[in-house]
Known about the structure:
This protein is α+β, with helices and mostly antiparallel strands. The protein has a domain at 8-135: Gcn5-related N-acetyltransferase (GNAT) (Aminopeptidase, 3-Layer(aba) Sandwich). 30% of the residues lie in helices and 34% in strands. It has six helices and eight strands, in the order E-E-H-H-H-E-E-E-H-E-H-E-E-H. The chain has helices spanning 23-30, 33-36, 46-57, 112-127, 142-150, 179-185; strands at residues 8-9, 13-17, 68-75, 81-91, 96-103, 132-138, 154-165, 168-178. Strands 1-2-3-4-5-6-8-7 form an eight-stranded mixed beta sheet, with helices on both faces. Helix 1 (23-30) packs across helix 3 (46-57). The chain is globular. It starts with 7 loop residues before the first strand and ends with a helix. The mean pLDDT is 97.
Amino acid sequence: MFEPDYPIRTSRLSLRPFTPxxxxxxxxxxxxxxxxxxxxxxxxxxxxxxxxxxxxxxxxALTDEGQALCLVAELADSGKVAGDCVLFWRSRMQQxxxxxxxxxxxxxxxxxxxxxxxxxxxxxxxxxxxxRIVARxxxxxxxxxxxxxxxxxxxxxxxxxxxxxxxxxxxxxxxAILREEWQARQPPG
Length: 189
């Protein structure tokens, strides 16, 4: 079992489990077409967000493969919700995981997604003991690909017309990093 000590703090963020009080803050950006442009989902209604929050608020730990640890990313200085993120435990035997993140557009361009992704990698490698972590994005989502590259992930695949998304075939990029690669990037001490 893996349950982080909450909140998980970075220099500018605090990551924590979902709570029922997060509905309005999450709805603020999950309802926007530009936020879900490269995702399989459509803009979400307030009721959709309320159901998602209720489901995710019940999970504070990973107890087995196939589960996802979903967290809210708040600005440390104000407590405002900047986004949400996920660490998937894909395989116990293969020690594989996957990360994902969504930020409110009001906080784009500030390096917060990179901070979130780096924290998720740390949780996966140092907390869960994973060997390999992947992340995926629509090939048109250049900003997300840059985040993955900034945290040291390498592009391993460009899958052409891999997904039929919102009425069109789209390409998918797959990035990955190994535990030893992650550790080599960490400052000593």
